[in-house]
Specification:
The complex is a heterodimer of chains A (351) and B (641). Chain A is 27% helix and 18% strand. In chain A, helix 1 packs across helix 6 and helix 3 packs across helix 4. Chain B has 3 domains: 237 residues, Pyruvate-ferredoxin oxidoreductase, PFOR, domain III (Pyruvate-ferredoxin Oxidoreductase, domain 3, 3-Layer(aba) Sandwich); 187 residues, Thiamin diphosphate (ThDP)-binding fold, Pyr/PP domains (Rossmann fold, 3-Layer(aba) Sandwich); 111 residues, Rossmann fold (3-Layer(aba) Sandwich), CATH 3.40.50.920. Chain B is 36% helix and 21% strand. In chain B, the strands form 6 sheets. Chain B has a 7-stranded mixed β-sheet, sandwiched between helices. In chain B, strands 3-4-2-5-6-7 form a 6-stranded mixed β-sheet, sandwiched between helices. The N and C termini of chain B lie far apart (56 Å). Classes of the chains: A alpha/beta (351), B alpha/beta (641). The interface between A and B is large, with 60 and 74 residues. Strand 12 of chain A pairs antiparallel with strand 9 of chain B, so a sheet runs across the interface. The complex binds iron/sulfur cluster. The site of iron/sulfur cluster has 11 residues of chain A, from loops. Iron/sulfur cluster (SF4) binds next to loops of chain A.
Chain lengths: 351, 641
């Protein structure tokens, strides 16, 4: 699916107003000077986001973008919607307060690997667990950019940085696996350099009713250049990247000869040949999270066999809808007279 | 006569029949037992009876931090104290006139507070050698003469209550709970309290369980009857109603009053109330209370931690609701970074800190007022915000409304300080008419308010009201007013990120000036002997929950013929404009605090007036008689001890 064949009657957006005509990407630009380094992957993501938001036909005033701290978290300043550039790791908390109270708004969180997975890990997993109707863009450059180059919770083991001159000692998080473990109803991965894929993935995310976590592989040319080069390099990328498409067999490779195969006995996933009778047909709607988890674990440490696309997209009631249903029921059936509440049942009158 | 009919009239009839009724001005009673015994409920019910009778009163629950400390142990003792009187009652009382002890541990832990000659009612059922030695009694205090200074009524209440409920087929647990009702019946008889309110309470609570209801009513009745028929109870006591101002009253605890104040403020602002909270003692009851009020439009959200709780509340404020969060000291510490963000964003937000003993986990169920500096200064950078404190349980209602008023009008986070004593203590509250409460209507921006350099109409989120310095609030969904705000320093007009040195200097000063300019009422001094400078030479200045004991001590000083002036601060930031002027009129300014002198320092720094501190951090409110002694020493030329 691309952003242009967008289904406008999605439950996720039913309570958000729409404009009659599509808006232009230019309308989503602000007068703030964009301050990322030249060549930073964030520029491409911003351009894609502006174009994508314009295609949604949601009035700009009904979109709120909340971010934390880090290079990626500057993004709200550059998009002409409502926005808050908040504090390190806490964007999901503020976004939750907005989303559950205002069904007429489309609420986005922009975060990075340090922001979301280190200092803000707790809020991320709880947003996913609750299934708050947030679209979370996790720009993963596997490094701390804004603080000038320390290793991050997604940096590979042994990463040599200013804070780890002898190499980092801890193994990285796999954000997709983490999100699935936290009960995420929608998890996807895309790459900054692939604008079409990026837009299509954002389209799938916005169509989803509930928390959508989109991990975006983002290049930081200054502190971690070419971290995703194997997935971009024309000579390798088709053999190393597994493109997931719902309902399609998971076949990849420059000659379309490789595939994800399910072992008929153990059920485990492995890389095999495209002619194997047990080639997996991708089903992002599979209820059992074990499948999406297994997909997320296919990638090797050197990024070989990295799946991109929508891993998981299942229906689960949102916190927002439950929150509102409970309020509506109480308001319909419960007492509403504040004066009576203050007086209580045990009162007495003097004079 | 059935138990339901024992109302005020019958109480008076029976009182007349007694051989002797002692009329008292005020009485202090404490109910003490195991924390699982239901002492809080018993005390609460007795309080409701005294309140309905028209007494003024104040209560003090005291319970352990552990939910169920081992039964029969000293740490497991829970108690509930109430003072009721025929005049203004300002504290739960210092010395007990009567103690009800349901087991040896309760006796041991509380007997020291009973005044000589006081009434001691003991349930003897658990006074076994084992239970006695467990709490350190070598001999049975009921028989070894150690209680000879008291009027002791040793009664096997458990067995008597058990016999009273035997016919109703209750479970063992239900039957053993009935002894509380027995004790309540007996004490109600002794103090001539009508038990109607308790009867209707029991009917409401056990309406669906006829056997339990019947058992509780029977136990209540049996306790009452024991008093009436037993020779040893030769005296009963009567405390006449207090002359309170006309109105409809109810009894209210501080946490409940805080919750109601927040709801009422939202109603008067025409906004939805949103509470983000994480459970923490002693603030959780505000969360519980507000969570029950969904039908009044209240939205509550239990967050994953303190930071998320305030984050969600701030998001709600940005989205056009009245965002509030409630916590205690450790939670305040976690919220401080978000408070700084709220200062920078200039969004309305109310944080209620129900203070407890600290530092760290400290004394979670005990009271203290040592978070004043944390509220004032506990943030990075220059991050001023208004701070208010409630003085009594019922005053939490008014203080919460005032906190919301300031937050909404000046677009700023506000900290309201309560404490463990106010949170759980209760007093009669004259219920206001909602329509008489202040109008807090908020005007959100709907139109662009400025021009860009190239002549386009734009929204300037930091173009301020010249009088209040409040910035315009445009909530998402308002067409044409899209804007981005954040924790980075902002241009003083456009709100765009600005690293300009002059702009930062200007913004820091504007944020400070905005708080400094908040209009707060002038400080009023209570001194019957004359206006400042012409009456008393000693002024006692307090804040927060010390109001009760300070006022009671001042009253006693004046009854002794000495002059003393009293002033109590609700607004701690900004301080009342006349504060320095008022303080300078006295020879001595004494500041009693349940911390090491935090307000005293603030006063010295702000007013250049010397102060004398009297401090105590025992996890309990000041005792009025101790303060009286301190005041008397100063007045007569002595030292502060
Ligand atoms: S430091 Fe890296 S991530 Fe940050 S702006 Fe520069 S290139 Fe982009």
């Amino acid at each position: 699916m691309t952003s242009t064949d967008f289904d406008f009657d999605l439950p996720a957006l039913r309570s958000v107003p729409r404009t009659a005509e599509p808006l232009s990407a230019a309308e989503f630009r602000t007068s703030q000077e964009v301050r990322w380094c030249p060549g930073c992957g964030d520029h491409a993501i911003l351009a894609a986001a502006q174009g994508f938001l314009a295609s949604l036909r949601i009035p700009r005033e009904n979109i709120v973008i909340v971010s934390g701290i880090g290079c990626s978290s500057r993004l709200p300043y550059y998009v002409d919607t409502y926005g808050i550039h908040s504090i390190h790791g806490r964007a999901p908390t503020i976004a939750t307060g907005i989303s559950i109270n205002r069904p007429d708004l489309s609420v986005w969180v922009v975060t990075g690997d340090g922001d979301a997975l280190s200092i803000g890990g707790n809020h991320l997993i709880h947003a996913l667990r609750r299934n708050v109707n947030l679209k979370i863009l996790l720009l993963n450059n596997r490094i701390y950019g804004l603080t000038k180059g320390q290793y991050s919770p997604t940096s590979e083991f042994g990463k040599v940085t200013k804070s780890t001159p002898g190499g980092s000692l801890d193994d990285p998080f796999n954000p997709i696996a983490l999100a699935i473990g936290a009960g995420a109803s929608f998890v996807a991965r895309t790459i900054d350099s692939d604008r079409r894929h990026l837009a299509a993935t954002l389209g799938a995310a916005v169509a989803h009713d509930g928390t959508a976590l989109v991990e975006i592989y983002q290049n930081c040319p200054v502190f971690n250049n070419d971290a995703y080069q194997p997935l971009k390099d024309p000579s390798r990328k088709d053999d190393w990247t597994i493109r997931l498409e719902h309902g399609q067999p998971v076949i990849f490779g420059s000659r379309s000869d490789q595939a994800v195969v399910r072992d008929p006995v153990t059920g485990a996933l492995r890389i095999g040949s495209a002619d194997d009778p047990d080639v997996v047909v991708h089903d992002a709607r599979t209820d059992n999270p074990a499948y999406a988890l297994a997909l997320s674990l296919l990638a090797e440490k050197d990024l070989r066999h990295t799946p991109i696309g929508v891993f998981r997209s299942v229906f689960r009631p949102t916190y927002d809808s439950r929150f509102r249903a409970q309020l509506a029921e109480a308001e319909e059936t419960g007492p509403t007279d504040l004066q009576q509440l203050l007086l209580g049942t045990d009162n007495w009158t003097i004079g | 006569m059935s138990v339901e009919q024992i109302g005020a009239e019958q109480v008076r009839d029976q009182a007349r029949e007694r051989q002797r009724v002692e009329r008292l001005d005020r009485v202090v009673i404490r109910f003490a037992g195991d924390s699982g015994d239901g002492m809080q409920l018993t005390g609460d019910r007795f309080t409701a009876q005294a309140a309905t009778f028209g007494n003024d009163l104040a209560t003090l629950p005291n319970y352990p931090a552990e939910i169920r400390a081992p039964a029969g142990s000293l740490p497991g003792v829970s108690s509930f104290q109430v003072q009721f009187g025929n005049d203004r009652v300002l504290t739960p009382g210092d010395r007990l006139d009567a103690l009800v002890a349901m087991n040896p541990a309760a006796l041991k832990a509380n007997i020291g507070d009973l005044r000589p000659g006081g009434v001691l009612i003991v349930d003897t059922h658990d006074f076994t050698p084992r239970a006695l030695s467990r709490v350190g009694y070598d001999d049975n205090p009921l028989t070894d003469g150690s209680l000879r200074d008291y009027l002791v009524h040793a009664i096997d209440m458990t067995s008597l209550a058990g016999a009273a409920v035997a016919e109703f087929g209750l479970s063992r647990k239900e039957a053993s709970r009935a002894r509380n009702m027995f004790a309540l019946g007996l004490v109600s008889w002794m103090y001539n309290r009508p038990i109607e309110p308790t009867v209707s309470f029991l009917r409401r609570r056990f309406g669906g369980k006829p056997a339990v209801l019947a058992g509780n009513l029977a136990a209540l009745r049996a306790g009452w009857d024991l008093g009436e028929t037993t020779e040893s109870f030769a005296v009963t006591y009567e405390v006449a109603p207090a002359p309170l101002p006309a109105g409809t009253y109810r009894n209210i605890q501080g946490n409940q009053a805080t919750a109601y104040g927040l709801v009422a403020a939202a109603e008067r602002a025409g906004l939805r109330l949103f509470l983000g909270a994480y459970p923490i003692t002693p603030a959780s009851d505000v969360l519980h209370e507000l969570s029950k009020l969904k039908s009044y439009g209240v939205r509550s959200f239990q967050a994953e931690d303190e930071i998320a709780a305030i984050g969600a509340a701030l998001g709600a404020s940005f989205a056009g609701l009245l965002g509030v969060t409630v916590t205690s000291g450790p939670g305040m510490a976690l919220k401080s970074e978000t408070l700084g963000l709220a200062v920078a964003l200039e969004l309305p937000l109310v944080v209620v800190d129900v203070q407890r003993g600290g530092p760290s986990t400290g004394l979670p169920t005990k009271t203290e007022q040592a978070d004043l500096w944390q509220a004032m200064y506990g943030r990075n950078g220059e991050a001023p915000l208004p701070v208010l404190a409630a003085r009594s349980p019922a005053d939490c209602f008014d203080t919460a409304i005032e906190a919301c008023r300031i937050a909404l009008k000046y677009r700023t986070p506000v900290v309201m300080l309560s404490d463990g004593y106010l949170a759980n203590g209760s007093e009669p509250w004259r219920v206001p008419a909602v329509d008489d409460l202040p109008d807090l209507t908020v005007e959100y921006a709907t139109d662009r308010n400025g021009m860009s350099a190239d002549g386009r109409e734009v929204f300037l989120p930091y173009a301020r009201d010249p009088a209040t310095l409040a910035r315009p609030l445009a909530i998402p969904g308002t067409p044409g007013l899209q804007h981005r705000i954040g924790g980075l320093e902002k241009d003083s007009l456009t709100g765009a990120v600005s690293y300009d040195p002059d702009n930062h200097d200007r913004m820091v000063r504007i944020r400070q000036a905005k708080i400094d300019r908040i209009k707060v009422p002038p400080l009023e001094v209570d001194d019957p002997s004359g206006r400042p400078g012409y009456g008393a030479r000693l002024l006692v200045v307090g804040w927060g929950s010390t109001y009760g004991p300070i006022s009671a001590a001042c009253r006693n000083i004046r009854r002794r013929g000495m002059a003393i002036a009293q002033a109590h601060l609700r607004h701690l930031n900004p301080l009342p404009a006349n504060l320095g002027h008022v303080l300078a009129a006295y020879d001595t300014v004494l500041v009693p605090e349940m911390n090491l002198g935090q307000l005293a320092s603030l006063i010295r720094a702000n007013c250049l007036v010397d102060t004398v501190s009297y401090t105590q951090l025992r996890g309990l409110p000041f005792r009025a008689d101790e303060l009286e002694q301190v005041f008397a020493n100063i007045i007569t030329g002595g030292e502060v001890s």
